[in-house]
Specification:
With 259 residues, this protein is α/β, with parallel strands linked by helices. It has one domain: Metallo-dependent phosphatases (Purple Acid Phosphatase, chain A, domain 2, 4-Layer Sandwich). The chain is 21% helix and 25% strand. The protein has 5 helices and 13 strands. It is globular and about 55 Å long. It starts with a strand and ends in a 12-residue tail after the last strand. The protein binds fe (ii) ion (FE2). Fe (ii) ion binds at residues 9, 11, 44, 72, 74, 185, 187, 204.
Length: 259
């Protein structure tokens, strides 16, 4: 059994508010009697992609739990490479993978530089084909990317979701090793099926964005900074994926029923 924590949309913006929320989340994970085997951060690490924000993010996301980060539409590939990956700056897609036993996690770069919407480019599909060709036949695979490939009933995020998702959906459906797809971007929890497999969209650590039925007037962004940060804990047991949402209380814990 592998335990994978998904943390999303941290939006480090040079102010302390979001950094404190990330610190609470990492503290919660680090103090668990059973710590996660790894943490995946599914994009929008920074709010505006500046070097200063990445420096804050690198400090804020430091933990002794193995942590893997993919970019979102608020990120900047060149600055992400220089700071998070300590590589020379370049604008090519940032695709990465790691393994936990027989589980392979593919972190796909779904960003389009300068745009809010997402897409997987030919280079990324070629990279994924190669990774799957090298993955053992009896292994399992999770795909992680920032942009949900399906509408999630969000007036904010649906117009800038993953474009042209059919190719990815066909790939997910056709490879029995792929257990599910993890995404962020929505700032709310949502699940559905994609290629017959679970699509799990994680909430944001930074803020909550309401769904279509929470919008009063067209164009309103139903964002709320009050809710506690939330994360998803994914259990991979054999070929079964179980995903559990957990809020991390900023105000501490009350272990006795209040009267
Ligand atoms: Fe975001």
């Amino acid at each position: 059994m592998m335990l994978l924590a998904q943390v999303s949309d941290t939006h480090f913006d040079s102010d302390p508010h979001n950094a404190e929320r990330v610190a609470a989340v990492l503290g919660y994970l680090e103090r668990l009697p059973q710590r996660p085997d790894a943490i995946v951060v599914t994009g929008d690490i920074t709010d505006r992609g500046s070097l200063a924000q990445y420096e804050q993010a690198c400090k804020g996301l430091s933990t002794d739990i193995p942590l893997h980060i993919l970019p979102g539409n608020h990120d900047d590939r060149a600055n992400f490479r220089r700071t998070v990956l300590e590589l020379p700056a370049s604008d090519g897609p940032i695709n990465q993978s790691f393994s936990l036993g027989l589980l392979t996690v593919a972190l796909l770069d779904s960003t389009i530089p300068g745009e809010g919407a997402g897409s997987l480019c030919e280079q990324t599909y070629a990279w994924l084909d190669d990774l799957l060709a090298r993955t053992p036949a009896d292994g399992t695979v999770l795909l992680a990317l920032h942009h949900p490939p399906l509408p999630m009933y969000s007036t904010v995020v649906d117009p800038i979701r993953l474009r042209d998702p059919q190719r990815l959906e066909d790939l997910v459906a056709s490879d029995e090793r792929i257990l599910g797809v993890l995404a962020g971007h929505m700032h709310a929890m949502g699940t559905t099926l994609f290629g017959g497999k679970p699509l799990v969209v994680a909430p944001s650590v930074a803020s909550s964005i309401g769904c279509a039925w929470e919008v009063d007037t067209p164009g309103e962004v139903p964002i709320d900074y009050a809710p506690d940060p939330a994360i998803v804990l994914h259990v991979v047991d054999g070929s079964r994926l179980t995903s559990i949402v957990r809020q991390v209380p900023m105000g501490g814990r009350i272990p006795i029923q209040p009267r």
